[in-house]
Structures are given as structure tokens and as C-alpha cells.
Specification:
282 residues; mainly alpha; 13 helices; globular
């Protein structure tokens, strides 16, 4: 670790912002990569402010989703509000999608609150990241093999939102990947890859906004200044926007199993570094 007198700086903010933006929406685990990056930068993984910072810079990635999907989000929000008072809106996909996002977010919200000390404590280990990267790769492979991928966005039902919402809870384990979990869940339920990815994006908004706001006091209460936080958020926004555009084009013609070799290789590399003592787990 660096000396206690040295807090996070703007270089750290830029590096972590790039890592967050690149990995938040790809099925390779942003939390896992941020944990590795923080360790490489010499930051104290046990420091609550450092843990909180990873959630705060996610706000940049979320802003990227909101900007990228603004028309969709605005249309869904309007239809959802209208449906509360006008019955003719209640059967529309946009109104239902509003409910799907709300219902799908409830499981991870409850789990995040109940398991906060576990998530920010024992699970903040590079051993956990390493094994989760490898283990969830098998689930992603199975999702591509088993999923029928014959259902589009218009075929979405409440049970899909509940199922994907429940599987999103697993992504609280660093190394699993929130997008990897939710896209896999959508594929298991028969959704086509683009629909599963879009649902994953929509579900990410309330989940990550809540996590960022929840952790903001810890980040601001530590040695991390507002400027460092804003730089990380801004960098994450720019990089995440480009990542979203790329991923949507990629999944239209490629299986998510393309990410498995990288996940497994990174997991094995981590295990090797930890086993030989080159890198400490926390």
C-alpha cells in the first residue's frame, strides 16, 4: 500500500475511470477489474473510501446509458406514468417495461442492503474475483448453448423481469459481472441476445444509481476530493458510452462466449499471482 498520507489522486481517477467505462457493460466484471486496478495502483482495498469510489464512478457509466438510451427511457417513463391513470396505456410494451425495470431491480436492492458488509468485506478478495471469473464463464457458455433466443423485446413478460432480477443478485460477487449475469439470465429465458443486452442495460440504471448514491457519503467522507471523484465519473462516462455502442453491435452477430477465453485467462493469471505471493488478495 502507498503511505497513509497519500490519498487518491487524479492519475488514479483517470485509470479507474477508464477501467470502469471499459468493463461496466462488457461481461467481464467491472468490480473485478477495478479491484485489480486499485491493487496495482497501491490503494488500500480495505479503505471504505476506496470501496465507495468504485460505486461512485459508476455514475459516469450510468450517465452514458441514460444518454445513449434517452429516447427509449423517456418513452418508457412517459408510458409508465400515463398507465398509472389511463388504462389504455397499461397493455403497451413501454408501460410494462417500466414495471419490469422496477420489479427486476428489487432483488438486488434488498440483497445489496442486507449483504453490504459481506460485499465490501470478505468478498473484496482477489481470490473471489479469480474464481468467479472462471466459474461464471461456464454459466455464460451454458446460456448460449441452452437458450433458444427466439423471443424479442415484445415477448417480454413479468416473469422474465423477476428471473433476470434474481440472477442479477449473483453479480454482487466481484468477478461474476452484472452484465454477464443479466445477459445470461435473459438467454436462459429464451430472449435473443440483443434483447437480453438491452434489458441488462435498462436494469443497470436503478441498480447502479442506488449503489453510487449509497456509497457517496463514504467516498466524500474519506480523503478523496470532489475533483478526483468528478474526473473519474467524467472519464467513465466517455469510455462507457463508446463501450455501449460497441457491445450492442457486437452481440448482434457474436455470442457472449467470445468473452470467456479472456475471463478464464485473467482468472488463471490472478490465481498464479496470488499463489506465488506476487500479489496479495486484499
Amino acid at each position: 500500500h502507498r503511505p497513509e498520507s497519500e490519498s487518491m489522486n487524479y492519475f488514479d481517477a483517470v485509470v479507474l475511470g477508464i477501467v470502469e467505462g471499459l468493463t461496466e457493460f462488457l461481461p467481464i466484471s467491472s468490480t473485478g477489474h477495478l479491484t485489480i486496478a486499485e491493487k496495482a495502483l497501491g490503494l488500500d482495498l480495505a479503505d471504505e473510501a476506496v470501496t465507495a469510489y468504485t460505486a461512485v464512478i459508476q455514475m459516469g457509466a450510468i450517465a452514458a446509458v441514460v444518454v445513449y438510451f434517452f429516447r427509449d427511457i423517456w418513452r418508457i417513463a412517459k408510458a409508465w406514468v400515463a398507465g398509472l391513470v389511463k388504462p389504455e396505456y397499461r397493455g403497451t410494451l413501454d408501460h410494462r417495461m417500466g414495471w419490469y425495470v422496477i420489479v427486476g431491480t428489487i432483488p438486488v436492492g434488498i440483497a445489496g442492503l442486507v449483504l453490504k458488509d459481506v460485499i465490501t468485506g470478505p468478498l473484496r478478495s482477489l481470490w473471489v474475483v479469480a474464481f468467479a471469473l472462471i466459474a461464471w464463464s461456464a454459466v455464460m457458455w451454458a446460456a448460449e448453448r441452452v437458450g433458444r433466443q427466439d423471443r424479442s423485446e415484445k415477448d417480454l413478460r413479468l416473469r422474465d423481469a423477476i428471473g433476470i432480477g434474481l440472477i442479477q443478485v449473483v453479480a454482487l460477487v466481484p468477478g461474476v459481472s452484472r452484465s454477464g449475469a443479466t445477459i445470461s439470465g435473459g438467454l436462459f429465458l429464451g430472449l435473443d441476445r440483443v434483447t437480453a443486452t438491452r434489458v441488462s442495460f435498462f436494469l443497470s440504471i436503478p441498480a447502479l444509481v442506488a449503489a453510487g448514491l449509497f456509497e457517496l457519503p463514504d467516498a466524500m467522507g474519506g480523503d478523496i476530493g470532489l475533483g478526483v471523484a468528478l474526473v473519474g465519473i467524467a472519464v467513465a462516462f466517455v469510455v462507457a458510452y463508446a463501450s455501449i455502442a460497441w457491445l450492442l453491435r457486437f452481440v448482434a452477430g457474436h455470442a457472449i462466449t467470445w468473452f470467456i477465453p479472456y475471463r478464464v485467462a485473467l482468472g488463471l493469471l490472478l490465481i498464479g499471482l496470488l499463489a506465488t505471493g506476487v500479489m496479495a488478495p486484499t
